[in-house]
């Protein structure tokens, strides 16, 4: 039998771009990746919010995070931030498409078209654009990783939320297509599908409503922490995760497997 082959379980020195990294799961992912020794481009809508996350990371004595304002709805801005990050760190190994928001409007009601356009632009179109811009760098990496944040709304559907549901189902389809398209180059593409997580998006839901929902729907009877999602994202981007591609991983406290 061949000798056991230990695989590389470190992202030290790798470069990651994370969108929507000023809050919630993106922020937790930026913190975690930086603590693991990666170079991290912390991107979000507002420069000051990105600066604040980089300052938090630097409080831990880590100097490998950079803040860049990036509205992922802006195709030119995506190209510019990718170029800047590659220039700063000499390449790009990991892309985490995480930016998102909730703008639920029932189909047929006023504001639906706007919600549809924004949801698809920010939570689906931007994923292919960021990957497209980063592709020349990913192709040069020996452990290129794409992680697209979908949702359990990409695996099922909640009423009155169809634009979001469509975007998140699209993310899973796009990720599978990327996995198949880039597989021969060793680039992996996977989806994280969070369930109910304590972040900016769910902040306005009163605690008692959250608990009722968590008791009724999840196996673990609670909302998840952004750090619990970030750690699964880390597992997926490790060089050792080299045979995992095209999957949609629920990080949902057992929401999708619970029947009763
Ligand atoms: P969050 O609100 O804490 O963070 C989302 C970040 O995305 C914010 O900082 C926001 O400024 C940023 N963002 C919004 N539009 C943007 C744009 N056009 N360009 C760049 N950044 C933009 O929310 P959370 O929950 O951390 O969201 C992260 C991802 O997780 C989203 O894609 C969301 O759909 C997804 N998700 C969240 C769940 C939850 O329960 N919190 C459940 C399932 C999926």
Give a quick precis of the structure.
The chain has 260 residues and is α/β, with parallel strands linked by helices. The chain has helices at residues 24-35, 47-59, 75-89, 112-138, 162-182, 207-217, 226-237; strands at 15-18, 39-44, 65-69, 94-97, 145-149, 188-194, 248-251.
Question: Could you explain the architecture of this structure?
Answer:
This protein is of the alpha/beta class and 260 residues long. The protein has one domain: NAD(P)-binding Rossmann-like Domain (Rossmann fold, 3-Layer(aba) Sandwich). 43% of the residues lie in helices and 13% in strands. It has seven helices and seven strands, in the order E-H-E-H-E-H-E-H-E-H-E-H-H-E. The protein has a seven-stranded parallel β-sheet with strand order 3-2-1-4-5-6-7, sandwiched between helices. Strand 5, helix 5 and strand 6 form a beta-alpha-beta unit. Helix 1 packs across helix 7 and helix 4 packs parallel to helix 5. The longest helix has 27 residues. It is globular and about 50 Å long. The mean pLDDT is 98. It binds 1,4-dihydronicotinamide adenine dinucleotide. The site of 1,4-dihydronicotinamide adenine dinucleotide has 28 residues, from helix 1 and helix 4. This is SDR family oxidoreductase.
